[in-house]
Write a structure and sequence with these properties.
This protein has about 400 residues and is mainly α. Helix content is about 80%, strand content about 0%. The protein has one domain (about 5-390): Growth Hormone, Chain: A, CATH 1.20.1250. The chain contains 20 helices and no strands. Helix 6 (about 130-135) packs antiparallel against helix 13.
């Protein structure tokens, strides 16, 4: 495949990932609006938001193995159709179940994008997987920045109905659908390398893969759980809490976009261990700081989680190449499973802390983040073990 086609496919993948991020960012800012408009508890909203993660996992589990069979293009087509359906159903939602179902469609769409685009990129750029995956996944936080600023702008010009923000997602969805239309896709790296389907299945139950899958559950829960709820948890820190999410996502986007060379020259185990330490420190700081210092604490957290997702995928693709598209799909699916588990858990903790602090939502939000810090604390131990077991070679 020539450079021009690679560039077109890569750019189309980035636009598709922006759409998944817009869904993530806008829904994070809708938490309080849904609680008020539909008379829901934070726990119920947690289940609604978490459905996107369950849908993502479902798409990855079924879409990943099908990439080699029906092709990347058809998986992308599924993503496009589900995005359109999910957006429209959300706009016309009337309560818990309609929001739940629409969010499920969006989750399936988001998972289908990852199921197709991750193996597409590793197949096109076999000699720089981690670097290219970081650049690709830089567009997820970039999309969150775009979505967050869009919500902020709408609120400031008097358009405070969350349905308009959802409607704005239709344009980039149509854009990536058009960009992928009638494009030729490469064979997956597994097929080109000659690994059999049996080899792929065997690799996905190897001890190292299972260990990384467990860590993916925690890294994604730390990143996605916190980012989805940070606007609600920090609502009393600033008049525009969505800007805190924009701040975190902006740092993540710049880190992934321009930190690829640095990451390429470092051992992935060192990157992951450092990331876990920074995420742990950042969450504790968020739990104890107030006012503008919260943005400094958020910056530390952002640097911590910036390289989690792409570096985990890159590690598996480089160290367990025979796991192929299925391996990447399982990792992504488990990652969003971690996000799904985190949503109602965070909502429940927030509700409990709100009661415990007699309605002090600022203190309740801070206490919730202190609980979340336990997760990267466990990761510090896990990645330390990984470093001493694989550090000399990875």
């Amino acid at each position: 495949m020539d450079t021009i086609k690679k560039t077109l496919l890569f750019n189309a993948s980035c636009v598709a990932l922006v759409v998944t991020a817009l869904a993530f960012a806008t829904r994070g800012s809708f938490v309080e609006a849904w609680v008020t408009e539909f008379n829901l508890t934070h726990t119920q909203v947690g289940w609604i938001v978490g459905t996107a993660f369950w849908g993502f996992t479902l798409a990855m589990v079924f879409g990943g193995p099908l990439v080699d069979i029906i092709g990347m293009g058809r998986i992308i087509a599924i993503a496009f159709v589900c995005h359109i359906i999910g957006i429209l159903l959300t706009i016309f939602a009337t309560g818990f179940w309609s929001l739940f179902i629409s969010t499920l469609f969006i989750g399936v769409a988001n998972g289908s994008v990852e199921a197709a685009c991750n193996p597409l990129i590793t197949s096109m750029y076999t000699d720089q997987k981690t670097r290219r995956l970081n650049r690709f996944h830089a567009w997820f936080p970039t999309g969150i920045v775009i979505g967050g600023l869009m919500v902020y702008l709408f609120n400031n010009i008097g358009i405070d109905n969350w349905r308009y923000a959802m409607g704005a997602m239709i344009l980039p969805t149509l854009a990536y659908g058009y960009m992928f239309l009638n494009k030729q896709f490469p064979q997956t790296e597994r097929v080109v390398s000659g690994f059999t389907y049996k080899d792929m299945l065997k690799a996905c139950v190897s001890p190292l893969f299972l260990f990384m899958a467990f860590c993916m559950l925690l890294t994604a829960g730390t990143e996605l759980g916190t980012n989805q709820w940070i606007a609600a948890l920090m609502a009393n820190v600033t008049k525009n809490p969505i800007l805190l999410l924009v701040w975190v996502s902006g740092i993540m986007a710049l880190s992934r976009q321009f930190g690829g060379t640095l990451i390429h020259n470092m051992k992935p185990t060192v990157v992951l261990l450092t990331s876990a330490a920074l995420a742990f420190i950042g969450l504790l700081l968020l739990g104890y700081t107030t006012g503008m210092m919260t943005f400094a604490a958020a910056a530390v957290f952002a640097l911590g989680v910036a390289f989690f997702w792409p570096s985990m995928l890159g590690f598996v693709s480089e160290n367990i190449p025979s796991s192929g598209a299925l391996g990447l799909a399982i990792m992504g699916g488990i990652g969003f499973l971690g996000g799904a588990i985190a949503q109602p858990a965070l909502g429940a903790i927030f509700d409990a802390q709100t009661i415990a602090t007699s309605g002090d939502t600022l203190l309740a939000g801070a206490n919730t983040l202190k609980y979340v810090a336990i997760v990267p604390g466990v990761l510090i131990i896990a990645f330390t073990v990984l470093y001493f077991r694989k550090g000399k070679n990875a």
